[in-house]
C-alpha cells in the first residue's frame, strides 16, 4: 500500500531534469546577444562567435554537470521518499485509531485502508470530516515535498551552469583580444550565419584546457520539511538558497 501511494507522488526526478544542450548560451541576463567586449580597439575590429556548449562538451563539463545533477537528484529522491513514508505512516495510524473507535468490520476496515466506499462507513460526521482533512493533507504534504525538491534541483542546476559560464568569460575575453575582436556573440539561434574565420570556439576550448578554471558548486541539497500534522492545513514549502562550495572542475 505504501509503495503504491508513493508512486503517485515521488515524480520530480522525471520532470525536473532537462537536457543541458543550449544552456550555456542561455544562462545570463541577455539570452540572445550576450557579449564580451575587448579591452582595446574601441568600436573598430571584428565581431567573433563562440559556442559555449561545444566548449563544455569538449572539456567534459557537461558530463561532470550531469553526474553531479544525478547525485543531487538521488539525494532529493531519498529525502522526499523518507518524508512521504512518514506521512503515510501517520495516515495509517489515524486509520487504525478510527477502525478501533468506530468498531469497523474487517471489510469496512479494508475499504478504509483502500480509500473506497468511505461514505458508507459507520462514521460520525466529525469523524468523516477529520478523515477528509487527513486524506487531503496526505496529498498536499507529499506533493508539496515533491515540488519543493524539483525547485531545489532546478535552482542548483542553474547555479552550476551560471558558475561555468562566469568562469569561461575571462578566457573568452583573452582569446578575443588576441584575435583583435571587440565583440563576441554566443552562438545560438539568433545567429543565422557566421564565417568560420570569426568562430573562436576551438581557440577557447584550447585555452580552457590549458588553464582549467575552478567552478563553484553548491553544497548537496537539503530540504527544510514541515512538521507533519494531518489534522491541520499542510504548510507550504519553499526552497532555501544553497551554500556554495568551491572545487576544481574535472580535467
TrEMBL record:
It holds the Pfam family OmpH. The keyword Signal applies. InterPro entries: Chaperone_Skp (IPR005632), Skp_dom_sf (IPR024930). One of its GO terms (molecular function) is unfolded protein binding. Keywords: Signal. Residues 1-25 form the signal peptide. This is OmpH family outer membrane protein.
Amino acid at each position: 500500500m505504501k509503495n503504491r501511494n508513493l508512486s503517485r507522488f515521488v515524480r520530480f526526478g522525471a520532470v525536473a531534469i532537462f537536457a543541458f544542450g543550449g544552456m550555456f548560451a542561455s544562462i545570463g541576463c541577455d539570452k540572445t546577444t550576450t557579449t564580451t567586449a575587448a579591452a582595446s580597439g574601441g568600436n573598430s575590429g571584428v565581431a567573433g562567435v563562440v559556442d559555449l556548449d561545444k566548449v563544455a562538451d569538449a572539456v567534459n563539463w557537461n558530463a561532470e554537470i550531469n553526474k553531479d545533477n544525478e547525485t543531487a537528484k538521488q539525494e532529493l529522491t531519498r529525502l522526499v521518499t523518507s518524508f512521504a513514508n512518514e506521512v503515510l505512516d501517520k495516515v495509517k495510524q489515524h486509520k487504525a485509531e478510527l477502525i478501533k473507535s468506530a468498531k469497523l468490520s474487517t471489510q469496512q476496515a479494508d475499504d478504509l485502508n483502500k480509500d473506497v466506499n468511505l461514505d458508507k462507513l459507520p462514521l460520525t460526521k466529525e469523524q468523516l470530516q477529520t478523515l477528509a482533512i487527513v486524506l487531503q493533507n496526505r496529498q498536499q504534504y507529499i506533493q508539496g515535498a515533491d515540488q519543493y525538491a524539483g525547485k531545489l534541483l532546478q535552482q542548483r542546476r542553474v547555479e552550476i551552469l551560471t558558475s561555468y559560464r562566469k568562469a569561461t568569460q575571462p578566457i573568452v575575453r583573452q582569446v578575443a583580444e588576441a584575435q583583435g575582436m571587440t565583440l563576441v556573440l554566443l552562438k545560438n539561434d539568433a545567429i543565422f550565419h557566421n564565417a568560420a574565420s570569426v568562430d573562436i570556439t576551438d581557440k577557447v576550448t584550447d585555452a580552457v584546457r590549458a588553464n582549467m578554471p575552478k567552478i563553484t558548486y553548491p553544497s548537496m541539497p537539503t530540504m527544510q520539511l514541515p512538521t507533519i500534522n494531518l489534522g491541520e492545513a499542510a504548510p507550504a514549502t519553499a526552497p532555501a538558497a544553497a551554500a556554495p562550495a568551491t572545487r576544481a572542475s574535472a580535467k
